[in-house]
Amino acid sequence: MTGIDDLPIRDELRGQSPYGAPQLDVPVRLNTNENPHPLPEPLVARIAERVAEAARELNRYPDRDAVELRTGLARYLTRTTGYEVGTENVWAANGSNEVLQQLLQAFGGPGRTAIGFEPSYSMHALIARGTGTGWISGPRHDDFRLDVDAARAVIAERRPHVVFVCSPNNPTGTAVDADTVLALYEAAQAARPSLVIVDEAYGEFSHRPSLLPLIDGRPHLVVSRTMSKAFGAAGLRLGYLAAHPAVVDAVQLVRLPYHLSAVTQATALAALEHTDTLLGYVEQLKTERDRLVAELRAMGCEVTESDANFVQFGRFDGPGGARAVWQALLDRGVLVRDNGVPGRLRVTAGTPAENDAFLDAMRAVLKEND
Ligand code: PMP
């Protein structure tokens, strides 16, 4: 039988497996950092209206530059961060994964390197590989905070073309402050200069203000965002970035023409009209996230400080490690994520009932292992 490796595939893809969490049909799914709230019915109705309008013109290609949508996103960012962002600062694509891919196509590529501080979002390394960009795995402190001195040293030594700073970081939940980003930005500019990408996919859930205002006067700094988490629209596939207009011009050199369908643009615009309701859900999720942290700590778990809509917890150093606890939770109908961080698991904040089910299952598992 012909397998992948029998194909004339690129050498660096041989023996690799695709990214993806198991999509198991269990009662409580807290494994992919999705928002547990379905979109509110008035928004569903508005999407239907706007998509119907778009459908009348589906014989035509969509607005290639997505100007109306980028203007709406710029307004949203200005309103929520207090930093004035214009249409020319914003670019949108099919999920922030595509935004990151376009950035690496434009600023990485063969003969170039990108660095991330791991454990972090594993797609950064995978998108690097897919775009022929070399990957450098940078360090973190043992408690998963970014180690600024070590990061500066490795940037100076390896001189990467692209630096990823994921804040809040997936899977650890840890966030960085503006001074940390500035320190890395300065190190990256002294070394090359290189492009610094702040991945703020979970920005709205943070206790800290957005790092977005740092793009001011820093044309090599990009902040990427998504509607998958805070807007509860993972199925929509809409990510975006804010940066100097020159960066927006640069990604247009590599984007496929008409990459963002008219249906996607119409749906995202409808979602933006309901920002207040959706941000209300974010507030509830932040409260639930803080409750998960507190209750897991009360059970004796070691819990990493979280600024995201998920929580990293452990330590499971017993027989079978984190994998055994993951399986024991699954046996009780609760799916969490094993990201391969030794002794740790990650749980996404769900509805209060889902979180209760998870906490009950955890108590039972810990009692059993006692
Ligand atoms: N960045 C981070 C840190 C993420 O965790 C994710 C999704 N899990 C993404 C980017 C990509 O999200 P999307 O493509 O849905 O916008």
Characterization of this structure:
By secondary structure, the chain is an alpha/beta fold. The chain has 2 domains: 4-40 and 276-369, Alpha-Beta Complex (Aspartate Aminotransferase, domain 1), CATH 3.90.1150.10; 52-274, 3-Layer(aba) Sandwich (Aspartate Aminotransferase, domain 2), CATH 3.40.640. It has helices at residues 41-55, 67-81, 95-107, 122-130, 148-158, 178-191, 245-251, 262-273, 275-298, 321-331, 352-369, and strands at 28-29, 90-93, 113-117, 134-138, 162-166, 195-199, 221-226, 239-242, 302-303, 310-314, 334-335, 344-348. The strands form 3 sheets. It has a 7-stranded mixed beta sheet, with helices on both faces. It has a 3-stranded antiparallel beta sheet with strand order 9-10-12. A hairpin with a 6-residue loop joins strand 9 (302-303) and strand 10 (310-314). Helix 1 runs antiparallel to helix 8 (262-273), helix 5 (148-158) packs parallel to helix 6 (178-191) and helix 9 packs parallel to helix 11. It starts with 27 loop residues before the first strand and ends with a helix. Residues 33, 95-97, 121, 166, 170, 199, 201, 226, 228, 234, 239 line the site of 4'-deoxy-4'-aminopyridoxal-5'-phosphate. Residues 28-361 form the Aminotransferase class I/classII large domain. InterPro entries: Aminotrans_II_pyridoxalP_BS, Aminotransferase_I/II_large, HisP_aminotrans, PyrdxlP-dep_Trfase, PyrdxlP-dep_Trfase_major, PyrdxlP-dep_Trfase_small. It catalyses: L-histidinol phosphate + 2-oxoglutarate = 3-(imidazol-4-yl)-2-oxopropyl phosphate + L-glutamate. It holds the Pfam family Aminotran_1_2.
